[in-house]
């Protein structure tokens, strides 16, 4: 007899310099970090019951990141996506703090030099923004192309990581 495990989902909302962040956990492991008005944000009903308990370490690391004290997150993640999407998201985690890569560079690193558009689509579906740093991906010309959290947030996150920008909180 086979039993089917139904995933338990919980969520909480935390403040950040970039507006409220909704954290989602699946079976106690971070599976989502969503900004307000984010493209591809799942509906609220999918986030599960409110419960801050699964997020203590995530919140600690986010606070340290926003304070400029943490440059690399060390959290277990539950990333739901296609095998290609998960491969792209793993490549995003390899982009060092304060640096950027183009969609084409990521496609080359994956051994798929013609797949920059597919990399961009996978990047846009990243369910754990900031921690899986999709904001560090730019166009081949250096332009700040699309970002699910909005180009203003992308520009501010990159400026924050480079220590060159205005880090005043956004008002929502």
Automatic annotation (TrEMBL):
<comment type="similarity">
    <text>Belongs to the MGMT family.</text>
</comment>
<dbReference type="GO" id="GO:0032259">
    <property type="term" value="P:methylation"/>
</dbReference>
<keyword id="KW-0227">DNA damage</keyword>
<dbReference type="Pfam" id="PF02870">
    <property type="entry name" value="Methyltransf_1N"/>
</dbReference>
<keyword id="KW-0963">Cytoplasm</keyword>
<protein>
    <recommendedName>
        <fullName>Methylated-DNA--protein-cysteine methyltransferase</fullName>
        <ecNumber>2.1.1.63</ecNumber>
    </recommendedName>
</protein>
<keyword id="KW-0489">Methyltransferase</keyword>
<feature type="active site" description="Nucleophile; methyl group acceptor">
    <location>
        <position position="134"/>
    </location>
</feature>
<keyword id="KW-0234">DNA repair</keyword>
<dbReference type="InterPro" id="IPR036388">
    <property type="entry name" value="WH-like_DNA-bd_sf"/>
</dbReference>
<dbReference type="GO" id="GO:0003908">
    <property type="term" value="F:methylated-DNA-[protein]-cysteine S-methyltransferase activity"/>
</dbReference>
<dbReference type="InterPro" id="IPR001497">
    <property type="entry name" value="MethylDNA_cys_MeTrfase_AS"/>
</dbReference>
<feature type="domain" description="Methylguanine DNA methyltransferase ribonuclease-like">
    <location>
        <begin position="11"/>
        <end position="78"/>
    </location>
</feature>
<dbReference type="InterPro" id="IPR008332">
    <property type="entry name" value="MethylG_MeTrfase_N"/>
</dbReference>
<dbReference type="Pfam" id="PF01035">
    <property type="entry name" value="DNA_binding_1"/>
</dbReference>
<feature type="domain" description="Methylated-DNA-[protein]-cysteine S-methyltransferase DNA binding">
    <location>
        <begin position="83"/>
        <end position="162"/>
    </location>
</feature>
<dbReference type="InterPro" id="IPR023546">
    <property type="entry name" value="MGMT"/>
</dbReference>
<dbReference type="InterPro" id="IPR014048">
    <property type="entry name" value="MethylDNA_cys_MeTrfase_DNA-bd"/>
</dbReference>
<keyword id="KW-0808">Transferase</keyword>
<dbReference type="InterPro" id="IPR036631">
    <property type="entry name" value="MGMT_N_sf"/>
</dbReference>
<comment type="function">
    <text>Involved in the cellular defense against the biological effects of O6-methylguanine (O6-MeG) and O4-methylthymine (O4-MeT) in DNA. Repairs the methylated nucleobase in DNA by stoichiometrically transferring the methyl group to a cysteine residue in the enzyme. This is a suicide reaction: the enzyme is irreversibly inactivated.</text>
</comment>
<dbReference type="InterPro" id="IPR036217">
    <property type="entry name" value="MethylDNA_cys_MeTrfase_DNAb"/>
</dbReference>
């Amino acid at each position: 007899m086979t039993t089917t495990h139904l995933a338990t989902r919980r969520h909480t909302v935390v403040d950040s310099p970039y507006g409220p962040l909704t954290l989602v956990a699946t079976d106690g492991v971070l599976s989502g970090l969503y900004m307000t008005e984010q493209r591809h944000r799942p509906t609220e009903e999918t986030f599960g019951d409110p419960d801050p308990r699964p997020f203590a370490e995530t919140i600690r690391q986010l606070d340290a990141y926003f304070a400029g004290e943490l440059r690399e997150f060390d959290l277990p993640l539950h990333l739901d996506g296609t095998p290609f999407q998960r491969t792209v998201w793993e490549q995003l985690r390899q982009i060092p703090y304060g640096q950027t890569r183009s969609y084409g560079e990521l496609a080359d690193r994956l051994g798929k030099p013609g797949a920059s558009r597919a990399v961009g689509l996978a990047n846009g579906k990243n369910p754990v923004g900031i921690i899986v740093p999709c904001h560090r991906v730019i166009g081949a010309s250096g332009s700040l192309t699309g970002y699910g959290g909005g180009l203003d947030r992308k520009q501010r996150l990159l400026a924050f990581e480079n220590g060159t920008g205005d880090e005043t909180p956004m008002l929502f």
